[in-house]
Write a structure and sequence with these properties.
- The complex is a heterodimer of chains A (796) and B (324).
- Chain A is α/β, with parallel strands linked by helices.
- Chain A contains 27 helices and 32 strands.
- A ten-stranded mixed beta sheet of chain A has the order 14-15-16-13-12-17-18-32-26-25, with helices on both faces. Chain A has a six-stranded mixed beta sheet with strand order 9-8-7-10-11-19, sandwiched between helices.
- Chain B has a single domain, classed as Aldolase class I (TIM Barrel).
- In chain B, helix 7 links the parallel strand 3 and strand 4.
- The longest helix of chain B has 18 residues.
- Classes of the chains: A alpha/beta (796), B alpha/beta (324).
- Chains A and B meet through helix 1 and helix 10 of A and helix 2, helix 3 and helix 13 of B.
Chain lengths: 796, 324
């Protein structure tokens, strides 16, 4: 010992600083290194009788045998959750708040055990589980204990969804559990959760905690297993909602599997998040930001800042500093308190990283790794930097999910935005500049659910987290996250109409003896009336069977043109809410001038009484007022997060949206679905009622005289479901609302999986468009927007 | 042991021309600096033998200080005795460091106590440092400041801890600051100069970074955080900013400037955090008394207790260690 002190005195090296694993080992011993399923408040042997091993990736040592739940087990768990639901709902907000509070306390009391187990099971450094993961877990339960208490006052019109199936990834096992379970329970749902097969252990300790706090049996069920277990959960008919965090590929499978089932779905998927550095940033702090961005949790972070975009003038300087910093990073056993980077979760992930790095080299990337080498006893991978990477190379596009950073340069901030958005993903972005003007110009323009200014990978329960584009949809955390776990009470009133669209046979006598002046209704694209590409028209037959006109038969090319026109109308989104409101009021004004004409048209098409038609027009005008009013009022929040910063939760337009209108109440249905979308700054491609499209085509002139900029509203008449499918399969359409049939809804959701567009469908259920509760309000505005959280730390 | 030379330091900073453009380009993001500082002590942990060795190293870096109105030769002599033998011999024996000649880095006093200290330290090679230039406020005329330095050097101080005119920083008078410090440095002659920024007065980290660079360009051998007399003393964020400035200066000129945090560092654990900061941000070459010092009076006592705990496994009491 004594010679050692003398040697260290000279070298000033670091030594080992192991966190003890004895308490964790004792806990595993107590369970004989074998875990059953937690179903209905009891530990139950899996019906499969099968178990798999959980292994410590830092030393490849066996930790425990984990049950492999099969379909029967999943069914048992879902039934337990279903059975527990009524009592849990009835228990009320305060009781639920108390349970959540108790869970938070219990997690804090056992925080070190959780931290050590998590580090052993996942391979991430104990520093991270101890200082980041577990404190965030406790915080999430505390925060949602509050939401549980407030649900009935803050979300009056909403109720629980029911039984929620939750599938979480291996990169933040307990943290992702808390992100899923806390809001679900707070809103009155019961839960079946499946942890990732590599990392089940802390979820099982969590189950014990649920038991300790006396959570009623069945409210939380933990079933372990691999992909098939998850699939069984997704497919279970009694599950009302699926919440998934994981890869985009699996997310897509889930989206398709749940399409048309009416299951609510939230997906938090992959990312290739940009880390943008301007020449006026604090470069030394940037370097630490890079460490937090890509060498946090071995880079196995969905929102990892994995694409470094650096202004050309400082690139070489920054690269040199990053390399110097990388040289000082320490990789090793996750329980060593002096490591920065632990082990990769499993050999399969390590192989993926190695393969992609090889590909990066083959494609001409300039690779740099530190001079030291990683320990050999676990699944380690060194921090890696690729410079001079072109956007076209594989490693610049695909998510590596490892400690690999790819860097490229930009010249100006518009170019930085283009590069940042040159990806299918949109989870997070980090922007480094000391110029607040630049930062706040960049933040709204980057397609990402979370934007960190001069910081990165900062999380808090009070702030929503989730993606744009193929990074998924839905938010977790904050007020915005609650909506994933509730539904409108009014939704229960919606029903599927018994007699679906009935075919009208044209009577020969329908034609009038003296022809009226022929009117050609074209399509409305880019603010101009355009002939359909097909050159065909389709007849419009009134309810009484009379031929009353013809509309253009739009096809996929017309949709393509309409989407392009909508994209070109970008300035609409940038307009102020006030300016948009003026246009909307003007639409109401011009519609009011022609109200009798529109009423006559409705009478003509629908055969309804004059008074009914007039009421529809009057309601439509009022509805326009409603959304014009909201155009400058549906605004964001400043969240109370826990670090010194301003966290802006900003609603942004979804982008270019397709809207397939209800076939009923053709004018009011059109107005009720199009107006909220454009009020929030979206540009839309609308497929109006198929059987009664003339109210929509009559609106062309109203829009033209109301200063609606060309391309904001595009209207393509024709076969609704055919055109809807074109929209659903269009990658440049960001959102799609569909108020049609049950089968059409399924098709839309299925097709939407490809580019993860936000699909809102009615599953064939009919809305009463006259009813304000069903057809107007917050839910339309929420669906027309996405919340972006912008973190702006301050202090000089 | 590293006190090879009488003055304890064998590296000098001869300064560089004032570069105002470089100064203007300095950006410091406080929140990011704080985030890094907060994880400095959580990303690294030094335990057992490593901790003992690191703490002994810290002892050799202490500027054992007394700067009080009631200083008399009596307590200064006692302090110097402690400076020679900072750690109990039996502990050193147990640590295998009996012959390592562990002493503190320097003894730091007011001008009036220089002679007393030099006498008390005779034969030990421990340099005497004197605070100067109207320490701690620096609110006296330039002539008086230069005269004070010269007198202290003449009295035998090998290190001079000057205070800068904070007004120059607050008013953006960088050229004036540069000229002032340059004059101080000239008056120091062969004595090594530590420039005290009194970062609490400078208020912002950006001011601290800029003042650090100007003081280095003007030839400071060390930059030092604080006088220990203000309400805000050495903090990790301030230290991080100054240390990064030292790194920039080294990369630009090849000259290694030393760093001295002072005030408020009382615990062994804190000392380890600062050593980790230096090792991580500047590297092992800076982990020497030539380039790193703690300005501290009570730190040594805590280190002694921790070392005894390491040797015996029992928590120690301060009365078991000879006082200064």
């Amino acid at each position: 010992m004594t010679t050692k002190v003398k040697d260290i005195f000279e070298t000033m090296e670091y030594g080992p600083a192991p966190e003890s694993s004895s308490a964790a080992n004792e806990w595993l011993d107590k369970h004989n290194q074998k875990f059953q399923l937690f179903i209905d408040g009891k530990w139950q042997t899996p019906a499969s009788s099968k178990y798999f091993d959980s292994v410590n990736p830092s030393n490849k040592k066996f930790l425990a045998k984990i049950s492999n739940a099969n379909k029967k087990d999943v069914d048992k768990a879902v039934k337990a959750a279903k059975k527990a639901l009524p009592k849990w709902v009835k228990a009320g907000p305060h009781v639920r708040a108390r349970y959540l509070y108790a869970i938070a306390r219990q997690i804090q009391k056992h925080s070190r055990l959780f931290a050590v187990l998590e580090s052993m099971d996942n391979g991430k450094p104990i520093r991270e589980t101890r200082d980041i993961d577990i404190p965030l877990v406790a915080r999430h339960f505390y925060h949602h204990a509050g939401w549980a208490q407030l649900r009935e006052t803050e979300l009056k019109e909403y109720k629980e969804v029911g039984v929620v199936g939750q599938i979480i990834p291996w990169n933040f096992p307990l943290l992702m559990l808390s992100w899923k379970i806390a809001p679900a329970l707070a809103m009155g749902n019961t839960v079946v959760l499946k942890p990732a097969e590599f990392t089940s252990i802390t979820a099982l300790l969590f189950a014990e905690i649920c038991d300790q706090v006396g959570l009623p049996p069945g409210v939380v069920n933990i079933i372990t297993g691999a992909g098939e277990t998850g699939a069984a959960l997704v497919e279970h008919p009694q599950v009302d909602k699926i919440a998934f965090t994981g890869s985009t590929d699996v997310g897509r499978i889930i989206r398709r599997a749940t399409a048309g089932t009416g299951k609510k779905l939230s997906l938090e998927l992959g990312g290739k998040s940009p880390f943008i550095v301007f020449d006026d940033a604090d470069i030394d702090s940037v370097v630490e930001g890079v460490v937090d961005a890509i060498w946090f949790n071995q880079g196995q972070v969905c929102c990892a800042g994995s694409r470094l975009l650096v202004q050309e003038s400082i690139a070489e300087k920054l690269y040199a500093k990053i390399k110097a910093r990388m040289e000082k990073l320490r990789v090793g056993n996750s329980l060593d308190k002096s490591v920065d980077i632990g082990a990769i979760v499993a050999p399969v992930q390590l192989k993926t990283i190695e393969k992609l790095v090889k590909q990066g080299i083959a494609e001409g990337g300039d690779i740099w790794q530190p001079s030291w080498s990683c320990p050999q006893d676990g699944y380690f991978y060194p921090p890696t930097l690729f410079t001079d990477v072109a956007p076209s190379s594989t490693i610049a596009q695909v998510e590596i999910f490892g400690p690999v950073l790819v860097a490229m340069t930009f010249r100006t901030h518009p170019e930085a935005i283009k590069l940042a958005n040159n990806t299918r993903y949109g989870l997070a972005a980090s922007i480094w500049t000391e110029n607040i003007n630049l930062a706040l110009e960049m933040a709204p323009k980057v397609k990402a659910g979370t934007v960190w200014i001069n910081c990165t990978n900062v999380f808090d329960a009070a702030s929503g987290f989730g993606g744009y584009r193929e990074s998924g949809f839905g938010r977790e955390g904050g007020r915005e996250g609650l909506f994933e776990y509730v539904k409108l009470k009014a939704d229960d009133q919606l029903t599927i109409p018994k007699n679906s669209v009935k075919k009208v046979v044209i009577k020969k006598s329908a034609y009038t003896a003296i022809p009226e002046i022929d009117r050609t209704t074209k399509l409305y694209i880019g603010g101009k009336q355009a002939r359909p590409d097909s050159g065909y028209s389709m007849p419009v037959i009134s309810k009484s069977g009379k031929h009353i006109g013809e509309v253009s038969l739009g096809n996929r090319k017309d949709i393509r043109n309409a989407v392009e026109a909508a994209h070109a109308a970008e300035s609409w989104t940038a307009m102020t809410g006030h300016a948009r409101a003026q246009v909307l009021y003007y639409i109401a004004e011009n519609l009011a001038i022609r109200k009798s004409e529109f009423a006559s048209r409705l009478s003509q098409m629908l055969g309804v009484a004059k008074a009914v038609a007039e009421k529809e027009v009057a309601t439509a005008i009022e509805r326009i007022y409603y959304y014009a009013a909201h155009a400058d009022k549906f605004d964001g929040r400043v969240h109370h997060t826990t670090s010194r910063n301003v966290t802006l939760a900003m609603p942004e337009a979804v982008g270019v949206m397709g809207i397939v209108c209800s076939d009923h109440t053709p004018l009011l249905g059109f107005i009720s679905s199009v107006l909220p979308a454009i009020a929030m700054g979206n540009r839309v491609v609308v497929i109006p009622s198929e059987s009664a499209p003339l109210s929509a085509t009559d609106l062309y002139q109203v829009f033209e005289t109301s200063d609606v900029p060309g391309g904001v509203i595009n209207i393509v008449t024709g076969k609704q479901d055919e055109l809807a499918e074109v929209l659903a399969n269009h990658d440049d359409v960001d959102g799609l609302w569909y108020f049609g049939t049950k089968e059409g809804s399924r098709k839309i959701e299925f097709a939407a999986a490809e580019n993860m567009k936000r699909a809102w469908v009615n599953f064939g259920k009919q809305r009463d468009w006259f009813d304000k509760v069903q057809a107007e309000g917050n839910q339309f505005l929420l669906k027309a927007t996405e919340i972006k959280n912008i973190w702006i730390p301050y202090g000089e | 042991m590293s006190h090879a030379k009488d003055n304890g330091i064998d590296i000098r900073n001869n300064g560089a021309p004032l570069d105002l453009n470089l100064l203007k380009g300095i950006r410091v993001n406080k929140s990011a600096v704080e985030r890094r500082s907060a994880t400095m002590g959580t990303r690294r942990s030094v335990k057992k033998e490593w901790q003992a060795a690191w703490l002994l190293k810290a002892v050799t870096m202490i500027d054992l200080t007394t700067l009080s109105g009631d200083d008399t030769p009596g307590n200064v002599i006692r302090l110097c005795a402690k400076a020679r033998r900072p750690i109990r011999q039996d502990l050193l024996d147990n640590l295998g460091m009996s012959d390592a000649n562990i002493t503190v880095g320097a003894v730091c006093v007011y001008h009036n106590m220089i002679e007393t200290a030099i006498e008390a330290l005779e034969g030990s090679q421990i340099p005497v440092a004197a605070v100067s230039t109207g320490f701690p406020a620096g609110q006296i005329s330039l002539d008086q400041k230069l005269e004070e330095i010269e007198k202290s050097v003449k009295a035998g101080a090998k290190e001079i801890d000057i205070v800068i005119s904070r007004a120059h920083v607050l008013r953006g008078e960088w050229k004036e600051l540069y000229e002032e410090v340059k004059l101080f440095r000239k008056s120091c002659g062969d004595a090594h100069m530590k420039a005290i920024l009194e970062t609490g007065d400078l208020t912002t980290l950006t001011n601290t970074a800029r003042a650090s660079v100007v003081c280095m360009m003007a030839g400071s051998d060390f930059i030092k955080t604080s006088t220990g007399k203000a309400s805000v003393n050495a903090t990790l964020p301030v230290s991080l900013v100054m240390v990064r400035a030292i790194r920039e200066y080294y990369e630009a000129t090849g000259i290694k400037v030393g760093f001295k945090p002072a005030g408020g560092i009382q615990k062994a654990k804190q000392a380890l955090e600062w050593l980790i900061l230096i090792k991580e941000e500047l590297g092992d070459e800076w982990l020497t008394p030539e380039l790193f010092r703690f300005g501290a009076s009570s730190l040594l006592g805590d280190i002694e207790r921790q070392l005894e705990h390491f040797v015996t496994g029992r928590y120690s009491a301060s009365y078991r260690h000879p006082m200064a």
